[in-house]
Amino acid sequence: MHRRGIPVVPDFVGGAGGSASMDALFAPDACPDPAAVLDDVAAMVGGLAGEVLEASSARGIPPREAALALAEAARPPLDAKPYGLRLLRHPRFGGNGTPGNPGWIPPGNPWHVDVEQYPFDPAGANRLLDRAGYKKGSDGLRSDPDGKPLRFGLAVASPAPPAVEVVVRALRAIGVEAKPEALDMASFIPRLVKGDTDLSLIMSGGMNTGNEPDYLRTVYSSKTKSVQHAQGYVNPEVDRLAQQQLVTLDEGKRKPMVARIQQIVARDVPVLPLFYPDSFHVLKRSAFDAWYVTPAGVAGSIPLFTNSRRSSRERRPG
């Protein structure tokens, strides 16, 4: 039929309706009505069929071959790595760190649990944006269905860290423009706390392997206003669990609460930890040999070696 010029959608493309129905039924936060489910399934399957037929026509191949080629392109490679690992391999970082975790708490922390991970997949991101109606213009920049360009400010502390370059380029590859705005700390922090930014990139603070998990509350609870607070994020279950774990002394009862918070925020992704950088400290022990590390960190739970037994004795009360 293809040779006779009759468009034919492969049967396995039509069969995608089963997966589409699962997305339509369970992806929305609220229970959808039957008509909305049918509309969403029709839109998803119709969009996929249209993509297959368009590829078939453009490449002069049967729709079945086009569908298989699209499926192969969409499949992550067997050695697909987390988004953060790709960032760490950038020459500016040299692999010195650990890939970020969408659940915030890094591996090695006793409170860490495995959560959903996201590989670096620009092709998949482009397909999602295409299907959602964000079309690319002649300049490669996308616009929303109302014609508004996907152009956002990216607030960073001055001087702009090397990660800005990587993030801006990665977003531009999927048709999103992020314009860096380097701010002095006196301006940067109030804007973060107020939520007065489109996007922001923060290169300090966080949790390390010895820090207890209440830092999750300061980031994800809508009741807090920290520098790293997830701007505009409100999830009643997270708010409830964040407060509950704070007053739960039994670690066995507290761990499931902390685990659930990680699972929720990894699904919602209001904040995306890019990587956990390694810290390097050069010490001259011949001059002073009493340096030590504070595993749980100081200040914003930042692990530091720059403490000494001598200074701690000098500051001891009495």
What is shown here, in short?
By secondary structure, the protein is of the alpha/beta class. It has 3 domains: 11-74, no CATH class; 83-277, Dipeptide-binding Protein, domain 3 (Roll), CATH 3.10.105.10; 279-318, no CATH class.
Folded structure, characterized:
The chain is of the alpha/beta class and 318 residues long. The protein folds into 3 domains: 11-74, no CATH class; 83-277, Dipeptide-binding Protein, Domain 3 (Dipeptide-binding Protein, domain 3), CATH 3.10.105; 279-318, no CATH class. The chain contains 12 helices and 9 strands. The chain has a 3-stranded parallel sheet with strand order 5-4-6. A hairpin with a 5-residue loop joins strand 2 (135-136) and strand 3. The longest helix is centred in the N-terminal third of the chain and has 26 residues, at 34-59.
Residue runs with pLDDT of under 50 for 5 or more positions: 76-80, 308-318
Number of strands: 9
| Average predicted confidence as pLDDT | 76
CATH architecture field of the largest domain: Roll
H/E element order: HHHHHEHEEEHEHEHHHEEEH
End-to-end Cα distance, whole Å, is: 92 Å
Number of spatially distinct domains? 3
According to CATH, the homologous superfamily of the largest domain is Dipeptide-binding Protein, Domain 3
- Specify the helix fraction band: 40-55%
Give the overall form: globular
Lateral arrangement of strands in the main beta sheet: 5-4-6
| Gyration radius, rounded | 24 Å
Strand content: 5-15%
The CATH class of the largest domain is Alpha Beta
Summarize the main sheet: 3 strands, parallel
CATH topology of the largest domain: Dipeptide-binding Protein, domain 3
Q: What class do helices, strands and sheet pairing give?
A: alpha/beta
